[in-house]
């Protein structure tokens, strides 16, 4: 746990120093600001479509910080140092997932609250989005770190990261948007189940990708 806490603290400091937080959040809020101008002052239309737009914006914003999650550590030799010290790759990945959730998903949830107000969503819709994104954020953090590990050797991998993330996150988008339109516990259960499966699988897949990086 001590190693995990040290790695988590390092991840949080690195996110803040590298400015990985502001650009995705600014992009997310920009979508929420511009969309009402595009569709006009139709409150009913905004309430029908606003939740889906927020989910889409959240998934697209998730792509932006992926490229910096692993590649910098590989170039600096940090991953090799951790291997020499005998630190498990899974611990490194879990720390990166936790750091990503704290530094990206939590600010995204705060921005979601503002975006829902701009869209004119009611309290029920707002809570559905916040709960759905809070749960799905665990899976998105896992997917982001896994994709970052898989693409760490590729320069300017943002486009490839997007091509990998979007198909994998479509089920979260489908059920998350459905839960906003018609909040049901069964839909939320599906989101929880998918998030649990992805959050369990992705650390092992990402750790395997880290080991492959060191062997190259």
Automatic annotation (TrEMBL):
Main location: membrane
Record-linked Pfam families: CcmB
Record-level GO cellular component terms: plasma membrane
Entry keywords, A to Z: Cell inner membrane, Cell membrane, Cytochrome c-type biogenesis, Membrane, Transmembrane, Transmembrane helix, Transport
InterPro entries associated with the record: Cyt_c_biogenesis_CcmB (IPR003544), Cyt_c_CcmB_bac (IPR026031)
Compartments where located: Cell inner membrane
Transmembrane residue ranges: 21-38, 44-66, 101-121, 127-150, 157-178, 190-213
Family according to the record: Belongs to the CcmB/CycW/HelB family.
Lineage of origin: Bacteria, Pseudomonadati, Pseudomonadota, Alphaproteobacteria, Sphingomonadales
Protein name (record): Heme exporter protein B
UniProt record, GO biological process: cytochrome c biosynthetic process; cytochrome complex assembly
Function: Required for the export of heme to the periplasm for the biogenesis of c-type cytochromes.
MF terms in GO: heme transmembrane transporter activity
Membrane protein topology class: Multi-pass membrane protein
